[in-house]
Amino acid sequence: MAAKPIQPLVLDSIGIHGLNIQSSPSSLSPQWLTTANNVMLDEKGRVSTRKGIKQLTNLITDSATANTFQVKSLGEYVSITGTKTLFAGAGANVYKINTANTPYTFDVQTFSGGTTKTDGNWQFTNFNNQFYGVQASNKPINYSGSAWLDLEDVGSYAAPSGVTTFTPSCILGEYGRLWVGDIGENRDVVYYSDTLIGQAFTGGASGSIDLKTVWAGDNITALASFMGKLVIFGKNNIVIYNNPWNPAADEFVLDEVIEGVGCVARDSVQLIGDDIVFLSSSGVRSLGRTILQDTMPLTDLSLAIKDELRTNITQADMAKVKAQYDLSTGSYLLGFPDRNVVYVFDFKSITPDGAPRVTTWNFETKKNPKSYLSTADKLYMGLGHLNYEGRVASYDGYYDVEKEDVTASYGTSGACTAAGNTWESGTSKCWADVDNTYQSDFKTVWLDFDQPGISKFLKRFLGVWSGGKNMDVTLSWYRDYSAVPTSVNFSLDPVSTGTEWLYEIPSASGTSLYGVAKYSPAFHPAEYKVSMSKAAKVVRLEVAQTVSGFKAALQNMTIWAKQGKIR
Q1: d(Cα 362, Cα 345) in Å, to the nearest integer?
Q2: How far apart are CA 106 and CA 109, in angstroms?
Q3: Which ranges of 406-475 does DSSP label H, i.e. alpha helix?
Q4: Are the beta carbons of 377 and 414 closer than 8 angstroms?
Q5: Which residues contact 111 (CB under 8 A, 6 or more apart)?
Q6: What domains can you pick out in the chain, each with its CATH number?
Q7: pLDDT averaged per 10 residues in sequence order, the chain, 567 residues
Q8: What is the value of pTM for the model shown?
């Protein structure tokens, strides 16, 4: 009998549907992953590595509360002239992020006659060339473009009639007025300001919406605008009003009450194109789909991770849960800082059940994001840990970069810059960028290659990666449902092509028409082969990659095997 030939078992669509930890890994198709840490699915559907977290600022320091800051909120004030200013909330202060300095500095903001702030967990909004912030158990604050004040110190301020302590926890600047909700003494009333006067909640066209007759015993958690409607989220209900431009008119009427589903985390509400995504008690939901299907079983965008997500919802502090729609990746980021996980819902492509693809990000505890802000050019992340003072970073590059104070070694501007570091003249400190690697790993489902009863003698693994220069990779394979893998290590070493400097060659400085070089060489896809061993009917693959400065995208995988016995 002739020997059976070695045959390729091709896996060219591994992971294109993203993460699924809800179903049994033995029943899923190869398009799913059962682990997807620090992984993204790029525009071509390839499994690739996330970017790094690059520290931009120096440290928040305070003699009374050093090393305890967490940057819990970020906001961008945009003036009518287009001027943009970044602000951060941390500890008992609001800080301006001074982008004119290198590294960026935290400039503490003063409040003339202001009351003590108890936390940095603000929700910010732009309205009528002003900037406002609210959080639970604190009085609202206002930035005029030049100075911060407690809202009650702004001229012509008027608190809502009959309210003793005006401390709303959520805010919306839309439809010609400010809308606020969830004050301590009236948690089911929405208050709205006079037209274009954000500090006047009594008189004029101001007023309130009492939801006691609309829902039964719920609390307001968030406010949003959607398709010309006012959306009021409770923990267990959603209320929608039509024509909010003139709340005093007869046209301002209750449009719909969605019972049994609400929002459990204020900062989970994000506008995504013509839809709103939010976190409910049972998972991530879409407002558009909820409206369409309120008389049917509701569509859940997180079915593939439902049990794990619900565990995090029940165990995490909902006040700390943060979300952001990242414009650069088309993804909804949902972070549980005290659980050290970020779920990434990729809306660029959807799975067969109509949901976005999901992967996860994990960080060292000290780098776990506490807040997010997506602007036209960057995704910012607020950091902070008990042993790691507040910082702000951007989603950039392929290192987790932190700035280290090396003033003790380089105490002068000349010595600091000569060593390739950054001198901060205002504090006479020398900062060095420390490039930290991080691990990206993914695991497949159990693969039977459409031959579940036939043994395969595993001979060789062939993978095609784009990029990943100097990346160490560990390939592990599990056989026949065993929890003990066989592993092999190799490194990615693609060949670069093109010129290293597009515009200006460093040695010929000053001769270029366009200035300093900006683009680095490109890497063609490369094949990597490693030997495999032993036989199995079903195989599960795990790939762990150490990201060290370059993106790596998996094109396809092939296992070369010889057919064995039917067993």
Answers
A1: 15
A2: 9
A3: 413-418
A4: no
A5: 141, 148, 149, 150, 153
A6: 6-48+438-566 (2.60.120)
A7: 72 91 93 96 88 92 60 97 96 93 93 83 98 96 96 94 94 98 92 97 96 93 95 96 92 92 97 92 86 55 96 96 94 94 92 90 86 95 79 95 94 97 92 96 93 90 93 97 96 73 48 50 83 95 96 94 81
A8: 0.92
